[in-house]
Amino acid sequence: MDQEVARYLQAFGRGLRRLPEQERQDAIREIESHVEDGLAAGASADEVLRRLGHPQMLARAYLAAYHFSRVRPGGTQTMAEVASAVAFVGSAGLGGMIIVPVFAILSITFGLLAVMGPVAGVARVFGARWVTMDGPHGPLPLSWSIPVGFGLGLVSLAVTWGSYRALRFYVRLVAKGYERWLRPLALTSNLMSGK
Fold first, then answer.
1. Which of 7, 60, 105, 195 is most buried when burial is the number of CB atoms within 10 A of its CB?
2. Threshold 0.70, pTM exceeds
């Protein structure tokens, strides 16, 4: 095998170090086969590698395909699989390092408020002194505690749902970008099919 191809495959393999070993070896074999097919068709090693692109970018596309194949829309997945895909997207660039944490924090914070609003309203009615609800002109009447608590809960729930949907949209958008990167290479790995 050409030394340039060997270096490329080695760099590609290093970029896949976060994949399970079997998936990593399958991806390396697939790229190696792709290179061999290109060479057999008469292309030079340099030309085949240039078409594949930078080995680290190709590795990131494979990692994305692997992580996103584990999070199936409408399917069942473990929290670890979802967290793995979100963590990958969060590390995928500057946008991910800002967008993912912002929407994750919004979802968690307002999710807690969605629960705590109604609880605080009910607790205030039953005499909890630690709960205060102030309006623009001072403390709210005690009779308003439950409706205001539930109203706060509903608004918080809407923000939680919106943040979660925005986070899912962003993750899918990044996934589509990585799929576009792999598609022109005509790669048909198990990673892309979700097997």
1. 60
2. no
Beta-bridged to residue 138, according to DSSP, are 135
Q: Which residues contact 119 (CB under 8 A, 6 or more apart)?
A: 149
9 and 32 in a common domain: yes
Count of structural domains, the chain: 2
Same domain? For 67 and 127 the reply is no
104-132 pLDDT, tens digit per residue, is: 889 999 999 999 999 999 999 999 988 98
Cα 72 to Cα 19, 78, 85, 104: the distances in Å are: 18, 11, 11, 19
C-alpha 49/C-alpha 65 separation (Å) is 20
Helix, strand, coil percentages in the chain from 3-state DSSP, rounded to 5: 75, 0, 20
